[in-house]
Design goal:
Elements lengths: L2 E7 L4 H19 L7 E7 L5 E2 L2 E2 H4 L4
Parallel strand pairs: 1-2
Antiparallel strand pairs: 3-4
Length: about 60
């Protein structure tokens, strides 16, 4: 059973995640012959103050998008 986990900053809408899940499923079905019924996808949303890059919290570096 294939599983895809996407870790990202909080802030995407349910509709954005819905579209991403659909497209990811389509690509894996086409390219890797994965059965959609066996594929699971997890979106892990991380708060900006719990994600760091180059030694600095994202919340201290970048404005929200």
């Amino acid at each position: 059973m294939p599983h895809v986990q996407i870790t990202m900053l909080q802030g995407r809408s349910t509709e954005q995640k819905r579209r991403a899940a659909k497209r990811i499923t389509e690509v894996l079905q086409e390219e890797l012959k994965v059965s959609p019924e066996k594929l699971t996808i997890t979106f892990v949303e991380v708060p900006r103050d719990s994600y760091a890059r180059s030694g600095a919290l994202i919340s201290d570096r970048e404005p929200p998008t």
